[in-house]
Amino acid sequence: MNAIAIEIAEKRYRAPAGEAGREIFRGFRLDIGAGEFVALLGESGIGKTTLLNIVAGLDRDYRGTVRFGAAAPRVGYAFQNPRLLPWRTVLQNVALPLPPGAEGQRRARAMLEEVGLGELADAYPERLSLGQQRRVALARAFAIEPDVLLMDEPFVSLDEAGAARLRDLLRRLLAGRPATVLFVTHDRREAVELASRIVVLEGTPVRIVRDLPLALTPAERANAACIDEVRAALGAAAPG
Ligand SMILES: Nc1ncnc2c1ncn2[C@@H]1O[C@H](COP(=O)(O)OP(=O)(O)OP(=O)(O)O)[C@@H](O)[C@H]1O
């Protein structure tokens, strides 16, 4: 069964008066199975964030439909920028999507412990490194126990070791709470390490130029030769 069925007949951004608008999607379709981890690759500015915003229901200015397999799916969204509220503590930021009250606080605290930031619960985001802020954003996205998790380059701008630690954390969190994931990245290696399917987008309007299932063992995902092989299979079309 599909967890998400996306059909975008048309999505365009309006332009200032007198200029032609830009058509991002026309006749676009993507079906995602329950439990899949789909990495979306594509050039900068092609429409990846637009696609996530449409799936999240944040952008309703398009013709088409997004259908979910579950009746009322819980959708978590980790943005490119961690988007923490600076006037709220780390704990309050994680508790934000949860129902108010003691149970929400308990769950938020447990999530913070799980991402290794229990000691920073009462700190404000400005005190945190970018890697720590991204951990908080992950904790917030997982706090609602999402059925669908949307992630927009969540580990960009970190050094390689920091990004690798967060990839490990994401894998651990997903092992405990499986979700269907739509993950935007510009990094093919990151896609190979994490995804069960890689979808490469190209052009204006956007079309799918590669759709590659990946049934790899953890050892194969970490193997340089194997990563090179998948990169080659993705061809020149994919960035990163
Ligand atoms: N609110 C908006 N109004 C007008 N144009 C927009 C708006 N948001 C995005 N665009 C344009 O639509 C195109 C797609 O943007 P989008 O952010 O979806 O791309 P992206 O693939 O996520 O890019 P990146 O990889 O750089 O994050 C871009 O050309 C962008 O300038």
TrEMBL record:
Residues 6-228 form the ABC transporter domain. Coiled coil: none annotated. The keyword Signal does not apply. It comes from the Bacteria. PROSITE patterns: ABC_TRANSPORTER_1 (PS00211), ABC_TRANSPORTER_2 (PS50893). Keywords: ATP-binding, Nucleotide-binding, Transport. GO terms for molecular function: ATP binding. InterPro entries: AAA+_ATPase (IPR003593), ABC_transporter-like_ATP-bd (IPR003439), ABC_transporter-like_CS (IPR017871), ABC_transporter_ATP-bind (IPR050166), P-loop_NTPase (IPR027417). PANTHER family: ALIPHATIC SULFONATES IMPORT ATP-BINDING PROTEIN SSUB 2, TAURINE IMPORT ATP-BINDING PROTEIN-RELATED. Belongs to the ABC transporter superfamily. This is NitT/TauT family transport system ATP-binding protein. It comes from Ancylobacter vacuolatus.
